[in-house]
DNA sequence: CGCAGGTTTGAGCACCCTCAACGAATGTGG
DNA sequence: CCACATTCGTTGAGGGTGCTCAAACCTGCG
């Protein structure tokens, strides 16, 4: 991480104050680090001794097969905590999707002290992953996209206008599809008037109910 | 690990004890309940106030879509703990696959006390789920079956002879395939001499290296 | 022995992937 | 400011993997 700038906490202008008790009480040293788009936060096999909180921006967690196939297991948006690992080495890669501020929480070595606060967050991640298994295992392309858009909308406060920080390739690798299929489904939903595409990275949901039906 | 050790009283004359009444006095109260094959342990939407440990047998965790499609997110074999939930209602169904003994742990209401010991178990489940996402999102039928067989073998001590407690339907719903495809891949692997099928529910891995290559 | 549930095998088709070309958006250097 | 390169996204044609539908085959069990 040598190439990255590091700031001390309170002076950072953009983000709002941390509300999470976990963030506060872990105390000790907390730095917000800026990761430019596409840069690595940690890699598979690296030693795991920190947790991270997204202050602004977005990150992707993924794994690779030997031949290069990639599966993104989760996106994490502003406010979310990531970096949990069983054992002390990372099983996944983490990268910034866009310019992203990450607060480093030095708690892993003292994980026991904060287990009370971390357990609910870990369980939240577990439920999310298991629900995503249903999407990948049993839903077709349209259902996957619909579920994805609903999820992103909810995580952005239920707004009808969604700002996607990730590329079509990222979406494809998250949903177990190809970029062509993702693009085709977007076009199809647009043609049917379910969504509008004001720009490449933003989506407006115009027929909420229809989208919800498609996601089921 | 004081808490976990108390689970490991391996003394079962199996009394099907009503899991409901009196014994709420301490977290030490533990009943082993026998669930016959196919019976429900808990259902989606039910209140979640227990954790469970498989003493013998096997269970499946799954979720349903409105039209009946099912995705099994995990199998739990003897010795494993399940029943973690975010919030206090179950998001999934749990059923016994075969006759199964389950130890009921009355800890959820006092989860904070045991967070230190539960967190690693929860994280283990999280890693498993995320690795399974790679299988469902990016691997073909042969790779999925190969990965499944490798996993089951490892969880049974690395033996070449695997006893499958679950049906083809369960395997299909775990791997995001149909029973026909599962059956076809099994046959194909048998024809190629990679596995033998001594009986319906047991598999013998004859070419370990080949199977491992296929799983990649 | 006969039934029932689970498993295997086959034929045809649908959905999604592959390969390819084109169009749009962004950045760079002249 | 434009020409160009590069990356990203869209659209089309064709093919393959796995699904659907259907029938036959076990295998355990009454």
Describe this protein's structure:
The structure is a homodimer of 216-residue chains. The first copy, chain A, has helices spanning 21-25, 111-138, 141-155, 168-175, 179-191, 208-215; strands at 6-8, 30-35, 40-42, 51-56, 58-64, 70-77, 81-82, 93-96, 100-105, 161-163, 195-199, 202-205. Chain A is α+β, with helices and mostly antiparallel strands. In chain A, the strands form 3 sheets. Chain A has a 5-stranded antiparallel sheet with strand order 1-2-9-4-7, with no helix packed on it. A 4-stranded antiparallel sheet of chain A has the order 3-8-5-6. Chain A starts with 5 loop residues before the first strand and ends with a helix. Chain A binds chain B through residues 61, 63, 65-66, 69-71, 73-74, 84-86, 91-92, 111-112, 115-116, 118-120, 122-127, 129-134, 136-139, 173, 175-176, 216, and chain B through 61, 63, 65-66, 69-71, 73-74, 84-86, 91-92, 111-112, 115-116, 118-120, 122-127, 129-134, 136-139, 173, 175-176, 216. Chain B binds a DNA duplex (30 and 30 nucleotides) through helix 5.
Largest binding interface between chains: A-B, 41 and 41 residues
Assembly state (oligomeric): homodimer
Distance between the termini of chain A: 42 Å
Q: Which structural class should the secondary elements of chain A be placed in?
A: alpha+beta
Low-confidence stretches of chain A: 1-28
CATH architectural designation of the largest domain in chain A: Sandwich
Major sheet of chain A: 5 strands, antiparallel
Give the neighbour order of strands across the main sheet of chain A: 1-2-9-4-7
Q: Helix tally of chain A?
A: 6
Number of strands of chain A: 12
* CATH class category label of the largest domain in chain A: Mainly Beta
> What's the name of the CATH homologous superfamily of the largest domain in chain A?
Jelly Rolls
Please indicate the count of domains of chain A: 2
What string, H for helix and E for strand, traces the elements of chain A in order?
EHEEEEEEEEHHEHHEEH
Overall pLDDT metric of chain A: 86
Overall 3D geometry of chain A?
A: globular
Q: What portion of residues of chain A is helical? A: 25-40%
CATH topological fold name of the largest domain in chain A: Jelly Rolls
Query: What percent of residues of chain A are in strands?
Result: 25-35%
User: Any idea what the radius of gyration of chain A is?
Assistant: 18 Å
């Amino acid at each position: 991480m040598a190439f990255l700038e590091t700031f001390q906490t309170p002076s950072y202008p953009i983000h709002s104050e941390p509300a999470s008790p976990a963030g506060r009480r872990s105390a000790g040293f907390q730095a917000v680090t800026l990761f430019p788009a596409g840069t690595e936060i940690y890699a598979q096999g690296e030693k795991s001794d920190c947790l991270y909180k997204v202050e602004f921006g977005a990150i992707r967690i993924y794994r690779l097969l030997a031949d290069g196939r990639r599966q993104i297991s989760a996106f994490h948006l502003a406010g979310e905590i990531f970096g949990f690992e069983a054992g002390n080495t990372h099983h996944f890669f983490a990268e910034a999707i866009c310019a992203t501020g990450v607060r480093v929480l030095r708690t892993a070595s003292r994980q026991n002290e904060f287990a009370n606060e971390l357990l609910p967050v870990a369980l939240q991640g577990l439920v999310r992953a298991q629900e995503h298994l249903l999407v990948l295992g049993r839903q077709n392309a349209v259902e996957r996209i619909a579920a994805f858009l609903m999820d992103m909308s909810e995580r952005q406060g239920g707004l009808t206008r969604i700002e996607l920080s990730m590329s079509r390739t990222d979406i494809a690798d998250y949903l177990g599809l190809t970029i062509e299929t993702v693009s085709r489904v977007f076009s199809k939903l647009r043609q049917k008037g379910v969504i509008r595409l004001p720009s490449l990275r933003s989506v407006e949901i115009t027929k909420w109910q229809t989208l919800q039906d498609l996601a089921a």
